[in-house]
Request: fold
Amino acid sequence: MEQSSGEGRSSTDSSLKKILKLFLFVLLLNTFVNLFISKPTIFDLIKLRSLKKEVAENIKKELKKREKLESLYNELKRNPKEVKERFIREYLFKIKEGEKIIIINE
Reply:
């Protein structure tokens, strides 16, 4: 009887090992499918992370542009004649009669 009870345990142990191996295989297969096949894949997530950084940088740039435009707008509201004259001088290269412009090339 001792021999038969020993054999029964080994068959149950081997079936438990088989079930455990099957469970681990299914678990690994599920992990593989979730990482590489199903959407979003790990590569999509990495790409999204880099795009998130780019968007954050673009937001910073646009906020700086907005600040400059707001300051120009406020300056234009306060003193429109001075802003107009500066625009004419800097961008259109116009001068008043009797003035001379000296351009220095660096």
Notes: The chain has one domain: 2-79. The chain is about 80% helix and 0% strand.
